[in-house]
Every structure is written in structure tokens, then in C-alpha cells.
Amino acid sequence: MARLPAGIRFIISFSRDQWYRAFIFILTFLLYASFHLSRKPISIVKGELHKDCATWEETNVGLSLSSRAGSTSPLQLLDNETDCGWAPFDKNNYQQLLGALDYSFLCAYAIGMYLSGIIGERLPIRYYLTFGMLASGAFTALFGLGYFYNIHNLGFYVVTQVINGLVQTTGWPSVVTCLGNWFGKGRRGLIMGLWNSHTSVGNILGSLIAGYWVSTCWGLSFIVPGAIVAAMGIVCFLFLIEHPKDIKCSSTLPTDPEMQCLLLSDGKGSIHPNHVVILPGDSGGGMAAISFIGALKIPGVVEFSLCLLFAKLVSYTFLFWLPLYITSVDHLDAKKAGELSTLFDVGGIFGGILAGVISDRLEKRASTCGLMLLLAAPTLYVFSTVSKMGVEATVAMLLLSGALVSGPYALITTAVSADLGTHKSLKGNSHALSTVTAIIDGTGSVGAAVGPLLAGLISPSGWSNVFYMLMFADACALLFLIRLIHKELSCPGSAPGDQVPLKEH
């Protein structure tokens, strides 16, 4: 009898449950990467919506003179273009107008997130997520249609951003809940650190796709990402499996002991019954949805939520303003600045994984976040100084800043949210995961809305002031973790054997 090929032996070495778990890991990774892919174009296109008038005139006057010398007609502007960019963003207050676009999206996202988690607990995840992805694709593409239909009304772009921000809130609670259903607490920091790189992967792909068309036809910089999100919505509808029980896989969520001292219930016992909502058709067994107040009472939720508010403020200010900053400092065009800005996201991938590995090893989530926040503030100061010295210096600082800024943000929104959403005071009730995730990320999204707005208001006075604002935000994020860090450090470390490993089936 012939020996099986090495590849087949590798395939059959994994059980059916393990293959399903790997499939869900990859699918949810791609689904949320597509959400971030659709958010990135606005930051890339900013450099095209408003151009440096002096540079434009100098370049095109030369082209016009050369065309006259060659006995051809002078250069003419397109109907949908002015010498300073795209109206109404071609005026001197363009930074405030571009900041308004960011704020309208992020403010709607922050408000919608609180509702999204509660709604998501009560609807099938697959249907809810599919609807959100199809709607997000439609409104992302609608923004780009403004180019082809020659729309110069600020209200059109603001309303499009508001609705897009609302429908995109369906994504995060859904994918975190789905992943939490499939993976237990063992090595959760590493697993979710790897998984959370979808944020950076989506940003990188979004930058490259939007940058490809930004200088020639910026409308496609939105339409193509919108089509990708909508297509992934169809994939979600066809393939997403919400819970192992749906295909009779073994449960991966045993009643693990808590791994961090900060997540202990402080002797308060379980969540009060009045804060639990019984879902229609539920027969008990811990499958009731928790109320908003009940979720807030879980130890650590409030502190991590407020920390994320300031951490996400820093991260999203980079997300929406970094390409324009690089354009201003290094004098690059919109396409090259967009490509260079992806290095911040590359650093973010390593930062998220590093934060997960360290927090798993030390079993101290808050202390890991605190250390990275402590290092991030001086790094941002160095970045603001060194980036003016040339592209090479900018590259190095983008990678380092991306790792330190994105590390705490990634850890809180993934492993910490999943830990808190399956806290032992819930007595195995997995229906709290979406609500807890939405509260933490929703509070963080308030900072995400405020950061780019402040950057738009402060940047006219100098980019250095923007960096001072970001350093202050990092210090505030660290401040909200002080109590939890003290609690972790004063608590004796768990022995390696106390941590329940991820079950293999």
C-alpha cells in the first residue's frame, strides 16, 4: 500500500473542528479587513481634494508655455476641477472641511456602536453582518460617484459619511463575537493579536487601491473598495458559521478560570438578574442577553473603555491625517504619501502581535498596555522632530510609532474585550460578548471622532501642536489604567499550570 503524500498527511493530521476553527479565523479576518479597506480612501484622497495652489500654478504655467511653443492649445482645466483641488475643499478652510468629513463618519460610528452591540446580541450575526457590509459598500461607492456626477455640495459628502459610519458599526461586535464563540481563553492574546492585524492589512490594501487612482480618477478610489466590501458581504452570507454548535462542533468555551487579577469580580458575585434580558425563544441555559447597565458593571469595562477612548484618538488621527502630514513635511504627491503611510500600519501589525504575546506570557493585559502607552508618548515627540529630516527618517519612525500606538488599541479591542465579555460573573453567558465589545469600542470611537476633528482645527497653527495633542492623549490613556495596573502588579502571578490551554480537537 502506497504511503500517503506529505501534503495529505498534513491535512488529515488536523481534526474537523480544527479546520472549521481555522476557516472562521481566516474568514472573519478578511471580512473586517474589507471594512478597514473602505475607510482608508478618504485619507488618501485628501491630498487630491485640496492641492497646493502655488505648486499647481507653477507646474501648469510651465506646461501651458511649452504647449504654446509646440503650437498646441493651452492647458485647460477639467469641468470638475479647480486650480486648488475639488470644490468645496479648494478654499483656505479646507482643513476644517476635511476634518468635518472625518468627524461626521466617526461621530456617527461612535453613537451607532452603542446601539449596534445591543442589536447584534438579538439578531443572527450572519444576517446582521451581511446587511452592514452591503450597505457600507453602497455608501462608500456613493462618495466616489460625486466625482463622476460633478457634485460639489458639502452636505452630500457629509451625509454619505454619516450613513456609512452608522452601517459600519455592524462589523466589529459581530466579528469579535463570532471569533469569541470559536476560541477559548488560552493563548487568546496571541491568537487575537495575529487576527487583529486585519486592521493594518485592510488599511494597507485600502491605501494601495485608493492611491492607484487618486491622481487620475479619485472617484474610483472609493468605488472599487465599496465593491470589495459588498462582495465580501455576499461571502459572509454564504459561508459564515456563527457558533460551533451550528455544525455540531465541540464547544471551545469551557468555564476557564480567569487569567488576570484585574478581571476578578472583587467579591461582588454575578451580574444582578435585573440586568439580564431573556431573548424570545431562549430556553435558559445562560443564553440571555445582558443589559447595557449590566455590562458596565463587569469589572474593568469602564477603565478599559476610557483608556481606549484616548488610545483610539491617537490611532485614528494617524489613520485620517498621516498621508496629508507626509505630503506637507516631505513634499510628496498624494499617491506616494499614501504608499509611505502604509508603513505605520505595518508597524501596527507587529505591535498588535507583540502586545498579545507579552500579555499572554505575563497574564497582565493592563500592564502591557500601560508599558506601550508610556513608550508611545516620547516616540511621537521624536517622530514630529525626525520626520522633517527626510524620507529615510520618516520610514523608521513610522514603523516604531505604528507598533507602539496600535499595540494597546489592538489588545483592548480584541483579547481584553473577549476576556471581559466572557467574565466569570456572567456564569457562561456568551450573549454579553457583543454588548461588552460594543461598549468598549463605542467609547473608543468617541475618541476616534474627536481626534481627527482636533487635528483639523489645530493643524493650521502647526503640525507640532497636533503631536503635542497626541502625546497628551497617550498620557490620559495611561492614567485610566493606573488602578488596574496597580491591581495586577500587587497580585501574585499565576503559575503556568493555572492557565487552561486552548483545547485542540
Notes on the structure:
The structure is a single chain. The protein has a single domain, classed as Up-down Bundle (Growth Hormone, Chain: A), CATH 1.20.1250. Helices cover 69% and strands 1% of the residues. It has helices at 6-12, 16-39, 41-49, 53-69, 94-122, 125-148, 154-167, 171-182, 188-195, 198-213, 220-239, 292-296, 301-330, 334-362, 365-386, 391-421, 433-458, 463-479, 482-489; strands at residues 276-277, 289-290. The protein has a two-stranded antiparallel ribbon with strand order 1-2. Helix 15 packs antiparallel against helix 18 (463-479). The protein is globular and about 70 Å long.
Q: What would the keywords be for this entry?
A:
two-stranded antiparallel sheet, 505 residues, disordered C terminus, mainly alpha, 2 strands, Growth Hormone, Chain: A
CATH secondary-structure class: Mainly Alpha
> How are helices and strands ordered from N to C?
HHHHHHHHHHHEEHHHHHHHH
Q: Percent of residues in helical segments?
A: 55-70%
Helical stretch count?
19
Overall structural domain count = 1
Structural class: mainly alpha
Write the layout of secondary structure elements.
Blueprint: H1 6-12, H2 16-39, H3 41-49, H4 53-69, H5 94-122, H6 125-148, H7 154-167, H8 171-182, H9 188-195, H10 198-213, H11 220-239, E1 276-277, E2 289-290, H12 292-296, H13 301-330, H14 334-362, H15 365-386, H16 391-421, H17 433-458, H18 463-479, H19 482-489
Antiparallel strand pairs: 1-2
Helix pairs in contact: 2-8, 2-10, 2-11, 3-10, 3-13, 3-14, 5-7, 5-17, 6-7, 6-8, 6-11, 8-17, 9-14, 9-16, 10-11, 10-14, 13-14, 13-16, 13-17, 13-18, 14-15, 14-16, 15-16, 15-18, 16-17, 17-18
